[in-house]
Amino acid sequence: MNNNNMQSITIPGASNFKFSAVRPDDLGATEYTLVTIAVDISASVYGFNAELKSAVLAVLDASRKSPRADNLLVRLLTFNTETVEIFGFKSISDIQSLDINDFVPNGMTSLFDATMDAVAATEQYANVLYQQDFDTNAAVYIISDGGDNQSRLATERNIADKVQEIRRNEQLESIVTMLIGINTDNGQVKKLLENYAKDAEFSQYVDVKDASAQSLAKLAGFVSKSISSQSQALGSGAASQSLSF
User: What does the alpha-carbon distance between residue 85 and residue 75 come to, in Å, rounded to a whole number?
Assistant: First the structure.
């Protein structure tokens, strides 16, 4: 799929948030799970940035092999001082490893802004697809090794309100939001992330204590299973059950 199949969408009421997505006319199925992965590449991930990229590639590779691959639309973000869309919502089969450059750690952590970008874009694209009679559910994964110290546009309360709004409306059958803390041996960082997961009403918090290649490979397998589970739940009227890491 080339870029001519993608459209740029501005989120109403949030002019700073824009995203890209495949045009509904170019979709071949009738139901989709919208998957967003947002990865922290602030300065503090230096030293395990290559392993972090490998974990993302492993998630994508496993999803390509899923029986539900034709029903997955994936969006990838990175965030530090700013949030950057690496690619917008598109079929997993159209995502190549070469689409993802090496993660270059720098800057601070706009964790709240990145989460709002991920959640609000999911809601807006689900609305676009709903208007075209597609059935959708969603899974959002936010990966970070520290608390917010840079966001200017969103707060925990804003995010919780947005998630509640999505769950009240009919555009998405269900949404799973997961905060993944990595390299959290520092008890203070773990507590910050746990509190954020609670205050922003994430469906689940997953704690990955170290950022070793083995731990991040385990994380990739876990996220892949979570995506598959949520996709298989589409049509059931409910979200998938939380998995144990």
Answer: 8
* Any domain includes 83: yes
Q: How far is 98 from 173, CA to CA, in rounded Å? A: 33
For residue range 124-178, what is the model confidence (pLDDT) as tens digits? 999 999 999 999 999 999 999 999 999 999 999 999 999 999 999 989 999 999 9
* Spatial separation of the C-alpha atoms in residues 140 and 166, rounded to whole Å: 13
In a domain? residue 243: no
Does residue 240 belong to any structural domain of this protein? no
Summarised one tens digit per residue, pLDDT across range 183-196 is 998 778 999 999 99
Question: What range defines the domain where residue 148 resides?
Answer: 3-233
Nearest Cα residue to 189 out of 213, 212, 205, 178? 205
CA dihedral 243, 95, 16, 158 (to 10 degrees): -10
Say what the pLDDT of residue 14 is.
59
Distance CA 153, CA 134 (A): 31
DSSP state string for 37-62: EEEE-SGGGTTSHHHHHHHHHHHHHH
Question: Cα separation of 142 and 133, whole Å?
Answer: 28
How far is Cα 122 from Cα 242, in angstroms, rounded to an integer? 20
Domain assignment of residue 239, yes or no: no
What's the domain count of the chain? 1
For residue 210, what is the domain's CATH number? 3.40.50.410
